[in-house]
Amino acid sequence: MITCIQHMIAPRFEFSIALNQKPEPWISFVPEKVTVLPGKGANVTVVVATPATASAGNYAVAWFEAIPDAQPNSKELRVGARLGVLILTEVRGASKPSITIDELNIAPPTASRPLKADIKLTNSGDVHLFPKGTLVLMDRAKRKLVGHVGFEKQRLLPGEERKVVLKFGGE
Q1: 115/103 Cα distance (integer angstroms)
Q2: What angle (nearest 5°) sits at the alpha carbon of residue 93, between those of residues 62 and 91?
Q3: How far apart are alpha carbons 20 and 34 in whole angstroms?
Q4: pLDDT over 90 for what percent of the chain?
Q5: Is the pLDDT at 95 greater than 80, yes or no?
Q6: Is the CB of residue 54 less than 8 Å from the CB of residue 24?
Q7: Distance CA 140, CA 123 (A)
Q8: Above pLDDT 70, what percent of the chain?
Q9: Average of pLDDT values for 114-123?
Q10: 54 sits in which H/E element
Q11: How far apart are CA 31 and CA 29, in angstroms?
């Protein structure tokens, strides 16, 4: 993966790149430091070397941090920049993906309010997942589809919980 760093303001910045967590020495950056002049850019190669003994569910954030050069003999305020990039890893064959629905509460529609479903999801596995779903509404007596409402995929890291609220007004 190549990441391009561009910066459009003065003065020149020296970007240093590091991981906030490095559970395994799998991820490295080439180069680890790069100087980017105003209006210019630089490429940084992200090298991921997953060992055969890797366990599932590792993830880390790469920080691209820039601090302007100090000016000699001056008292100045230097403003830096920090950008975090989430790097997600998954080990094939060893991963245990699992989403659980911990709560499902449905409030029937009334004359003044649509049907409402409160759903609590938990990523109970060991890898990041992107669940999405559809609530299908059926007329039991007629065995006919009444409608459906869904939610778009969203990131859930291992152990993370998310509450999803769906509303259906009959459209």
Answers
A1: 16
A2: 10
A3: 18
A4: 23
A5: no
A6: yes
A7: 31
A8: 65
A9: 94
A10: none
A11: 6
Residue type present at position 104: L
The tokens for 166 are: 């769906």
DSSP class of residue 112 equals: S
- CA 155 to CA 129: how far, in whole Å? 6
Nearest to 148 by CA among 123, 128, 122, 168: 168
Do the strands 33-36 and 59-68 form a parallel or antiparallel pair, or are they unpaired?
A: unpaired
d(C-alpha 149, C-alpha 164), whole Å: 12
Distance CA 126, CA 144 (A): 38
Both structure tokens of 142 = 């007629």
Place of tokens 């403003």: 79
Strands 33-36 and 115-123, sheet pairing:
unpaired
Q: C-alpha angle 162/164/167, rounded to 5°?
A: 175
Between the CA atoms of 123, 126, 130 and 134, what dihedral angle is there, to the nearest 10 degrees?
Answer: -40
The answer to whether the beta carbons of residues 165 and 113 sit under 8 Å apart is no
Buried b (16+ CB within 10 A) or exposed e, 4-13: ebebeeeeeb
